[in-house]
Amino acid sequence: MTNYFIGDIHGCYRELMELIDKIDFDPISDTLWITGDMLSRGPESVRVLRYIKSLGDSSKIVLGNHELSMINLFYNNFKKKFFAENEKKENIRNNIDFQRMFLENDIEDLVIWLKSQPILQIDSEKKIIMVHAGIHPYWSLQDVISYARDIENFIRIEEAEFFERFIQLNRSYRWKKKYFNNFEKIKFNINVFTRMRYCYKNGNLNMNIKDDYQVSKCKSFKPWFLFDRKIDRRYSIVFGHWSSLNGKCSQKNIYPMDTGCCWGRRLTALRWEDKRYFDVPCMVRKIQQF
C-alpha cells in the first residue's frame, strides 16, 4: 500500500484528476491523505468533494477553515433562509464562493459527510500527524488528541446558532494553561488546528501575518514549527494552509503541502514511502473566485 499526501485543493478538480493520474493512484491498494481546504476559491469544489467522498476508506482527510466556514454558512445562511419565498438568493450573494455549491442537489449530503470528518489524523505506526494548519508547540500528543476529539464532537452535534458563534465570530487567539470553560478552549483550539501560522513565545497566536517565515523580519513571533515542541520528534507533521511556504520547510519531519494551486501555481502530492514529490501546474493563470 502506498500513501500519498495532497495539499489544499481549493476546488481545483481538473488539477486534482491530472495529479491522480500522474501518481497512478489506485484506491484499491493506496491511500490518499488530504490536508483540508478541499473547497472554495477554485471553480469545481463540489466535484472535488464528490470524488474524495467516493474514495471511502481509501482517503484520509482533515477539516480546514474553509470546510468549517462552509458548514457554518450552510446551516446558518442557507438551510434556514435560502428557500424562504421572500429571500431566495439574496442571502448568499455576499458568499459567492459557496453560491454554486449550495445549488447542487446533493449539497446537504456532502455537508453531513464533512461534519463527520476529523480535525486530526494520526498514524502511530508510521509516526505521522496530519492537520490543516499546525500543532501548538506547547501541546503534548495527548493534548492534541484530546483537543481534536472535543472539536470533532462539537462539530457533529452542535446546533447551528451555537456553531456560528465559534466559527464566524471566533477571535480567540490567546493561549491559556487553564480556560474559564471548555467552550473558550475549543474556540482557541479551532484556530490552532485550522488557521494558525505564527506564535508568540507566550503561546498566543498572531493571525495577521501570512508571509513566508524566511522573509519575515519580525522577531517577536515565529512559525509554530520553529518552537521546541512537546511531541516526540520522531513524529512527522504534515499540514496545508500556508501557501506562501510553497511546500518548503527546512525543519526535519515538517511537511507543508499547500503549494498555491488556487493562486496560479501548482498542486502537489508527496509519496510517503520514498518522500518523492509530484506536482501539476494550475491550468489557468489565475483562479477566479466563485
UniProtKB/TrEMBL annotation:
It comes from the Bacteria. It catalyses: P(1),P(4)-bis(5'-adenosyl) tetraphosphate + H2O = 2 ADP + 2 H(+). GO terms for molecular function: bis(5'-nucleosyl)-tetraphosphatase (symmetrical) activity; phosphatase activity. InterPro entries: Ap4A_hydrolase, ApaH, Calcineurin-like_PHP, Metallo-depent_PP-like. Gene3D superfamilies: 3.60.21.10. Keywords: Hydrolase. One of its GO terms (biological process) is RNA decapping. Its EC number is 3.6.1.41. Pfam families: Metallophos (PF00149). One of its GO terms (cellular component) is cytoplasm. Residues 4-241 form the Calcineurin-like phosphoesterase domain. Belongs to the Ap4A hydrolase family. Hydrolyzes diadenosine 5',5'''-P1,P4-tetraphosphate to yield ADP. This is bis(5'-nucleosyl)-tetraphosphatase (symmetrical).
